[in-house]
Amino acid sequence: MNITVFGTGYVGLVQGAVLSEVGHNVICVDVDAKKVEGLKNGVIPIYEPGLEPIVKSNFEAGRLNFTTDAKSAVEHANVLFIAVGTPPDEDGSADLKYVLAVAETIATHMTREAVIVTKSTVPVGTADKVKARVQQTLDGAGKSLDYHVVSNPEFLKEGAAVNDCMRPDRIIIGTDSELAEKRLRKLYAPFNRNHDRVIVMDIRSAELTKYAANCMLATKISFMNEMANLAERFGADIENVRKGIGSDPRIGYHFIYPGCGYGGSCFPKDVQALVRSANQVGYNASILEAVEAVNYRQKEKLFSYINAHFNGELAGKTVALWGLSFKPNTDDMREASSRVLMEQLWAAGAKVQAFDPEAMEETQRIYGSRDDLILCGTKEAALNDADMLVICTEWKTFRVPDFDLLKNKLSSAVIFDGRNLFEPEEMAERGFAYYAIGRGL
Ligand code: UGA
């Protein structure tokens, strides 16, 4: 099938590449000419395992192309995905200006019937706004054409995006049109072989499903962080509690890892956006407000440990920081806990020597050059003349460190671990002061 995808960000690029990988003819459109040129030359703007080879091979095979020319891209296909960004605006609501601009572009260039699919995470009711914008544009141009708007939210995780897209748990199709359902079933048939993963529903339920999924996951994390904070105060170990409750299949082991807070481009933004949408319909989403508040506090937790350990005397201290990205296997720093920590450390007069396997360039881009931030080429180099080690992201390379080296290099044998990578008893035996999340002090 011929498919067009608007937006070559995380969602659009992965979606386009994966659809071409299963044999569809895909054109990805972006307004950023430099990005489009780069993609044609195999420059992938994000770090995502497995993405580069499929972009390159499908581009070479002619099944995947990139353009800034919206007109030819609209003419190319009768399924048009909108996968552009929905950044939060000032009050935390999702800003739909890019989504609606694409709707208008599509209607401007449409010359035949089309299915328009929203893939971006958009508030409930957005499909109606897309429809209205398309209709208004068609009317303005004096065109009378059939079109169907579908909500088909994306559930991929950064760092596992290609795999999530190739093997989806579910494919949600929100539509009121049989034709659109049939066409999308055909499009997704290669991903739907062994059992039916397609769930068809009305548009608004599909839109809410996306938020409900992310908000449920964020709720699990904040809940566990709250339990971890209680475990500390009760003298219990959250890791035992985690295993104890996870063994109940109704609770499950997934997404109950306590830590120094969730980050990324999705959970913080989506929880806030649903709180705002709820307010707009006169409802106070108090669970979600608490989820956000707990997460905010959790991101400040490592700093409070550090500050207390050093009796508030952090000026002139050097902090070795391992892990900058919001989670492993990505270079994404959006809403990362490391940022909250670094900014608090700087405000207290400390210097940060940081290492991350992928997010060094991104950190440089965000913070530029400053005297109190040293980006180190290896995790060992970050330890040079440092007073303590702090871990913000659970990259595999941090899991089995050379503890003797750590002891030799750090002026105080103290580790602040935001991801519970080590066993407190073992750390005590090794002679470290070890602060983790919810594991006693
Ligand atoms: C999330 C969802 O997991 C995807 O299903 C969804 O499609 C995506 O948002 C989206 O809306 O696009 P992502 O933001 O890539 O994916 O990352 P996650 O793997 O969900 O991790 C989010 C944050 O939660 C990370 O900071 C991670 O460290 C934290 N986390 C996760 C915990 O603190 N504890 C856990 O048990 C799990």
UniProtKB/TrEMBL annotation:
Keywords tagged on the record: NAD, Oxidoreductase
Enzyme class: oxidoreductase
InterPro entries in alphabetical order: 6-PGluconate_DH-like_C_sf, NAD(P)-bd_dom_sf, UDP-Glc/GDP-Man, UDP-Glc/GDP-Man_DH_C, UDP-Glc/GDP-Man_DH_C_sf, UDP-Glc/GDP-Man_DH_dimer, UDP-Glc/GDP-Man_DH_N, UDPglc_DH_bac
Enzyme Commission number: 1.1.1.22
Source organism of the structure: Pseudobowmanella zhangzhouensis
Pathway assigned in UniProt: Nucleotide-sugar biosynthesis; UDP-alpha-D-glucuronate biosynthesis; UDP-alpha-D-glucuronate from UDP-alpha-D-glucose: step 1/1
Signal peptide start-end: none
Reactions performed catalytically: UDP-alpha-D-glucose + 2 NAD(+) + H2O = UDP-alpha-D-glucuronate + 2 NADH + 3 H(+)
Protein name stated in the entry: UDP-glucose 6-dehydrogenase
Pfam families: UDPG_MGDP_dh, UDPG_MGDP_dh_C, UDPG_MGDP_dh_N
Keyword Amino-acid biosynthesis appears in the UniProt entry: no
Similarity comment: Belongs to the UDP-glucose/GDP-mannose dehydrogenase family.
SUPFAM superfamilies reported for this sequence: 6-phosphogluconate dehydrogenase C-terminal domain-like, NAD(P)-binding Rossmann-fold domains, UDP-glucose/GDP-mannose dehydrogenase C-terminal domain
Coiled-coil boundaries: none
GO molecular function: oxidoreductase activity
Domain UDP-glucose/GDP-mannose dehydrogenase C-terminal: from-to ranges: 320-424
